[in-house]
Give the backbone structure.
Amino acid sequence: MKPKRHLKLQTHYFIMTLPGLLWLFFFSIVPLRGIVMAFENYNPGLGLWKSPFVGLENFKYLFSLGDAKRVIINTIIIAGSKIILNILVPLTFALLLNEVRNLKYKKLVQTAVYLPHFLSWVILASVLLNVFSLDGIVNQIMHLMGKESVIWFSESKYFRQLVIGTDVWKEFGFNAVIYLAALTGIDPTLYEAAAIDGCSRWKQILHITLPGIAGTIILMAVLGLGNALNAGFDQVFNLYNPMVYSTGDILDTWVYRIGLVNLQFSLATTAGLFKSVISFFMIVISYWAAYKFADYKIF
Amino acid sequence: MVRKKTLGSKMFTIFLYALLGLLALTCLYPIWYAFCLSISDKTAANSGLVTIMPVGFSTIAYREIMGDAKFFHSFWVSIQRTVLGTVFTMLVMIMMGYPLAKSKKEFKLRNIIMWLLMFCMVFNAGAIPWYMTMVSYRLIDKIWGLILCGSLPVFNLIIVMNFFRGIPSDLEEAARVDGAGPWRILFQIVVPCSVPVIATMVLFTSVGYWNEFFQGLVLSTSDKHYPLQTYIQQMVVNTQSAANMSPDELKLMSQLSNKSLDAAKVFIAMVPMLVIYPFIQKYFVTGMMVGAVKG
Amino acid sequence: MKKYVQKATALLTAVTMAASLTACGGDAAQAPADTPATDAASNEESATQTDAGTEEASTSSGDTASETTGDPFMKFAEPVEIHIGQQAYPTLKFPDGDTNEDNVYTRYLMDNFNIQVVVDWSAATGNDYTQKVNLCIASNTLPDGMQCGRKEMLAAAKSDLLYDFTELFPQYASPQVRAIMDSGDGSAYEYSMYNGKQVCTVGVDVAASGESMVNVRQDWLDELGLDAPETLDDIEEIARAFKENKPAGDATIPIAGPDKNNTCYTNFLQAGVSSCGFEPVFAAYDAYPGYWVKGDDGQVVYGTNTENSRKAFERLASWYKEGLIDPEMGVRDQADEQINAGNVGMYFCAWWKIGYGITDAYRNDPTANWQSYVVKSEDGKWNTREQCPVASYCIFNKNISEDVAKAGLIINNVWVRDENKLTTEYGANTSIYWYPLRNSMGALDECEVTYDALMQVLNGEKTAEDFNRGTDDAYKLLYNDCVTVTDCVKDYTAGSNELGIENFDVNNTNFPRLYSILAGVKPSALNRPDKSVYSACYSQTESMEAKWANLETAEKEMALRIITGKDDISAFDAFVEKWNNEGGSEITAEVQAQAE
């Protein structure tokens, strides 16, 4: 009797996952057959299966391109900085916000800083390009401070910083949610005891708050690994221009250009596949690391 | 709790409030700026005179939008896509999240499915095979095409799953003893206990659908079917590549430019999100905490 | 007799095409631009033949057409559906109730030719449209017909996705279309070929679109008592005067630069000149960046990599540094916004921009008297680049029926013959951009011929009726221009040949075109170039397919960075070295082989 019921439950569970699995199959797995394009010289007239097979030629060619190296370096720098800063800035912000005693003010600030997260890069880019233009508000402030105007988005030496900075600005409020959540989990009696002992706010943060949320911080760092090659297509695509390709062109924008603008379908797929493989390894590593260092099972 | 109000502490408080206030202002600025631009005089807007306050006043941009049937049609497509898509995605995620929240012992396929999800999240063959697949399903110009094209949001699913795990198992046990099957348990016990995470995910999912523009562009055969962000992207942001234009197209492009009208569209596109998210905001902390922080 | 002549014409055209192809190395991947001398000669021959055929054919075009001869304006017995992909222009609206499938043009095609236009998809012109075209090619889901660029046409042809028009085109293209194809050196045919087959229909652009001029605010010049510019030194001096005197206040931009959607100069793959680019500055140094220039010794070099280009770059960089060029060049959304707002003193572009391109400038400030001049070198020579005569392409799916292919050709014939009638009588409220599968066709010298005719009418030497030459004339808009010019131009002193903005009614519907001709074409109608430079090649060679995109990106970057002072001129030398190493020398050798 008992084993049979158990089996039935398994079946129910499976049926529950079925809609999701079908969705996954038809819209993620079926299109994956296109990966063969990376190993052939794709000719639309011949189709996916009859185009001439070239083995690893496309990969060899990809790595012989000076541009490929450049975009990989850009991608790693931009994505890496985003991962680090998207932990540090929201954490600092959460700690600061935690010090605010006026609840109304706290709520107000919180509502405002979440906001950019909900706006698409399409919309934010149109605003940011104006804000950082020659007659935009940033240059007006620089002017007041007696500094030379800068055309920010055309300077390759500033472009990465701007991309990283604007991304951190867009997300810091929202990313802080997780730390605020973790902060609520710290036992308030610890603070009371510390206050009685005469600990300053700074010392309380150092000795109570940070250790209390250390697990969350490590976890966020580890989870970030999976994004090591995701530098943000939507953002860069809407902000960049040829003058900043040297520092701003990333893997995803480059793949877009060679594939959908320059019609080098096979090369685009090859570069995409390269990215997928690396990302998959990073995720496996992060899964392992999260388990090992934070004792956290991602799934 | 005893607090000493030293001078340093007061200074710190003032500094803190000011800093946070300033940060909050920078986050509000884009909306304010788009608004200013949209009600400013067209010439002032085009020559970049608008920064923190409107220059001149004109409602022409909004009146023009009122007469633009395509804009409202796109708006309607986006609403449909967002509402249907969110309901559909939430159903799938809840149904899938529940069995996956079980241990491997309780649901044997669990780990296989999880790795499959991770794999699908990372691997994709790019836009071309994806487009060919959508064509073969005849999902071009269909509202379901716009909904299904995005594939399952794995990250959100994991958060839902983790939240479900945090629900005390005694509740389920008690229901099971009362003879409730897995479906009843899911919808009568688990779902009502998961309002925070569901509310948060509803917001995430609807924001995702609302803000998506690229797939909307590729999967629609004409601007009649564009969702709003695609409409805006092609009207406002679309970076024309002169390389692909013939001289007479260039002639035309140079006649079309209207920053205040663009800004008005951008502003209207922001509105639905601005209206929804403050209501759901109160659930964020609980939803995210149990979903992500506690494994 | 009629049949004989038409057949002979068709044959002759085919032979000429074949000959011109073999002349440049038969199995070369692309139809290259080859030795102009022999080709021009043979084409002239075919042009005269065609004209002879034209006369005969048109007089009897009412006859029921048989399959073999072909009536370029035949009405199908049964409606023929043609499915197209269409460029959309989001801000151009239709009159109430009309759509892109049901408007004056599609109704006209249906009523008169039984051609039913079905729009399978449309996308906004520019990136969105290109992306859609590329997806169609990649997934082999071409509609029956669509417009595209040369790169896309070649990619589709290479994958064997395109309909072969080799036989049908000579039969069904109208005499007028063929007359325009034959204008100039007749190379338009070559551009529609791949591996010896005609795989597309092409639009021929007026030559003037490839010649960039300096346009200047004459009213500012007058105010400051300056003479019209002739050389780069003059331009520099004027720019300096604008910078110091600030006629538009602090917002004054002496010389506009390309915006983020344009480049400093177009290259051999692109039609036309860059809007607010710097082609004339380079040409004044006898430099032609972006073009394959064949030297006197027969050696082909890439124009960007020359010593003269280097000098021009240095000159431009010094202008930028001094603040004579728009400091936001390369990043602005739209350079034209600044021109329209009345902030710009000078810019470089071809004839059309002064009227079509910046109409708002005159609406905002009716005294903005833009005038156009050629830019001469130090020794007083006018050097200029000349563009590829073909500016647009229409490609058709390989699998369409012959009737659909005919319909495609007829749609093209109808546009060339009836554009005027359609736009003035029927479609005054519907932009010409909505015409399905529109190839813009203009005889190469249309602009200059029109300028001369208009001046003759204005000076009272001829009347508009003198230019009413019937529907087979290659100058399809000439009569209409001559009729309308007297409405648009007022208070003109006959014989003076001086026209300023004050002589025009800027709200007249024909103002953009007429001002473009009378102000924009004026310099090229009154001067002939001392040196015209054609690119030795206007299409991609084999190794370009893989390598050009990266070289092109590097070049755009280098040009912008040097001019805007982000890098000093040594970056130019570094670029040349990199260019040669990363495939440039290989490509040059291919172009060289093609040119010989």
About this structure: Residues 1-58 of chain B form one domain. Confidence is low (pLDDT under 50) at residues 239-246 of chain B. Residues 259-293 of chain B form the longest helix (35 residues).
